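Subject: Sanity check before I submit

Could someone independently write out the structure tokens for this chain? I want to compare against mine line by line before I put it in a report. The sequence has 311 residues.
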Amino acid sequence: MDWVVLAVSGFAGYAAMQWKWKRSDIHDRPFLEPLVNALLIIFFVWKMSPILLSPSLLREHPLLWLTVPGTDIGWWFGLAVAALYLYRSWRKIGVPWRLVGDMLSVGGVVAVLVHNLLSWQYGMPTSLPWGISIENPEFKYHPVNIYRLIITLPMLLWLWRNALLMGTGKWLLNTLTYYGMGLMVVTFFDTKTEFIFSFSGEQTVYLLMMLLGVGLSVFLRKESRQATQVKKEEREEKQNDAAGILPSDTRNVASDPIGPEKSREEERRLLQNNSSGRRWSNGLGLVAGTRLSPHDADHDEGNAREQRKPE
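---
Independent answer below. Compare away.
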């Protein structure tokens, strides 16, 4: 029954990814086909791991490996081989990594939801009223699968309500960070064996999820700032083009603006030129034996005023 529940859960996660994938912009690419091959790789490596670790099984009991379950080392090794295969396959067909992460997030959340709906999992002993018993009602245990459901339902609801964020990496970010944090809290009510640094294998996985989520958050925030800076520069360049300012002149314009001081200085220079011009004209008239009439002088002064008027 454990294998049946696992198969049903995996199929539910696959169906959720397929439903979401059909609503993406690149739904014509074979994104889900490598997943089936990856699952087969994990299974066969896990199943063949006893032979790899104990080759004497083939010599002493050739058919025993068919009934012997795989090892934990085989599971992790198969997972690493499958991850490498998926990376090469998705890169070959040109699927963005953000979309891959979001698809895997929704598929994993749905698979965990179905698995905890179909199977009971007993945790540490408890005296709380919602504890469940196996045979003797005097001994109750934490319903770990119910705790996981309480954590999984809000996560799935958030993914559903934020469907427009698919392909941005936000689904993957929140799943790794917040969902991993919630599952880590559930492990404190579950029976566990030490794996490394007083953490169980399950807790180690959730801790790695949270660390990856923090790293992804920093990366996406940095990328967002860079994109904002590029948009700001493009907007300023468009404004400069509309104003007729070359990009190479923007620094000169910013550092040497035409201020009121320069305008007053130019006005004084213009008045001095006009006055010196009048004196030169009067002198020329005297030399020639003629003199400017008052009307001509007033006319010249009026022209000077007109030139002094601001535009």
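---
OP: Matches mine. For the report I'm noting this point. The radius of gyration is 39 Å.
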